[in-house]
Amino acid sequence: MARFKPVKQFRVSEEVAEQIKKSILQGTFRAGDRLPSERDLTEEFQVSRMAIREALRSLEKSGFIVTRQGVNGGAYVTDLTSEHLVNAYMDLFLAEKISIPDLYQVRLVVEPEVARLAANNLNEGYKKRLLEALEQEDLPVQDFYEDNDRKTAVHFILAEMSRNYFFEALVRSLIALTRRVIEEVRAENKFIHPAGMHRPVVEAILTGDGEAAYEAMKKHVKEFGENLIKLEKAYYQKKITSLSS
Amino acid sequence: MARFKPVKQFRVSEEVAEQIKKSILQGTFRAGDRLPSERDLTEEFQVSRMAIREALRSLEKSGFIVTRQGVNGGAYVTDLTSEHLVNAYMDLFLAEKISIPDLYQVRLVVEPEVARLAANNLNEGYKKRLLEALEQEDLPVQDFYEDNDRKTAVHFILAEMSRNYFFEALVRSLIALTRRVIEEVRAENKFIHPAGMHRPVVEAILTGDGEAAYEAMKKHVKEFGENLIKLEKAYYQKKITSLSS
DNA sequence: TTATGTAAAACATTATACCATTAATCTGAT
DNA sequence: ATCAGATTAATGGTATAATGTTTTACATAA
Asked: Does B187 score more than 70 pLDDT?
């Protein structure tokens, strides 16, 4: 009966990445700190520079560090964001594991709840930001992408107002996927995003009435989502022609 | 104004990774296929083996390929799973961006909805699997981790039954984080997971009544979540002592 | 038939050299 | 004294080659 444990083989680079990651999570290195240079790490870990580099690439890919070239360059510890989580969702979406109706179904559950929490956490600062975002939404702009930025701003503010980072990261992912669909087909924003679309939602939030906010958001997501699903066919026709990371 | 686009500097390895990823998403390579060997890719891309390796590590890290050593080894395309998404959530959790109350709040919203969908998609196959899982839940076992496996099985089946991969990936993430908390403190499962805890949920699902399933799951998550939050302090004491990838 | 040894394919790692980028420093003219 | 431009040094980026390690398939002998 299993007298010996199998000799587990780690890749050298993984062992290195593991140790560095642990240091970061333990607080030995904090956001903004610079890790030792690749050459110095080579000596500390007693492995080749290649192994160090692979480890750093791995940490970079999971969002723990960024690297810069040049004097005073190196690997800098970052404050972990939801960006890489969003990328993971994006990959599943691009691989067609997640469909547009899936996306819509989740938004319909998550975003009203986020709106409710946001209404409950309302304060003057948030109020000001929401009104500003709403005001800027319907200003005429040239650039398609900038327009999308403005149309999504309200959702991000509400996500932040939920004071729940899981929800915030989730909303960021949902909006990123939605936005991809729109940008893929370059949908006319007038159609998909009629002027003033978010006004009822914001107004409900501003009353501080969670239930009203919930309902207003639900109505918004429903309307928007139905338009979005109509675009599904157009999306699948143009898909794959240009893929982002 | 902007007449010229800036000459964007990609790392060679990123350019390579991008091209391979695009091939996979376009279906040039399918799950199970083997990519050319590193040396062959070196010739195709006309870059060093280093660059190829970094690209492959990157793709491996995002879950698109696995690599094996030896004869007939190489980089094999995989069917993308939610595993790496779960890792991204785990990192945010370990970095204390996501708290246990955050986690609970999201579960309370997501899982009842998943239960509702599951009830609506009920069929004989699912029925059988649910009953089996329920039966195995309270069998006495030696191993702590195996016990946790059994206690989470019902949630995974329901997630699958939702027939929405976004929800499924989300539930997998939520359960993984929850499980981490439990395993970190090695909570007595009798306390946190009383025998028969999932029975009311499964029974509601089996009636096919979405609304009943919704309510039953809500009640379950609430009870369980309250116990979980009581463990929060214990969790933060033992944290960081052992970090997984 | 069944071990056991051997070879080959492929990734894993190391080592070394050189290239490219960047911030700081120096230098000199105004 | 100040500012522009050149120089320098640190650091990551890339390339190449050699060697180590793992795994499978196959041959060989008991």
From this structure: no
The ranges assigned to domains in chain A are: 12-77, 83-238
Provide long-range contacts, Cβ within 8 A and 24+ apart, for B41-50: B41/B16, B45/B16, B45/B19, B47/B12, B47/B16, B48/B12, B50/A50, B50/B13
| B243/A50 CB distance under 8 A | no
Q: What is the pTM of this model?
A: 0.91
Query: Residue B94: which of A14, A25, A61 has the nearest Cβ?
Result: A25
Gap between the Cα atoms of A130 and B156, Å rounded:
38
Per residue in A109-119, pLDDT (tens digit) is 999 999 999 99
Given CATH 1.10.10.10, say whether it is the number of domain A12-77.
yes
**Cβ–Cβ gap B91/A167 under 8 Å:** no
User: Does CATH place domain B83-238 in 2.130.10.10?
Assistant: no
Q: pLDDT per residue over B73-131, tens digit each? A: 899 999 999 999 999 999 999 999 999 999 999 999 999 999 999 999 999 999 999 99
For B224 and D5, how far is CA from C1' in angstroms? 69
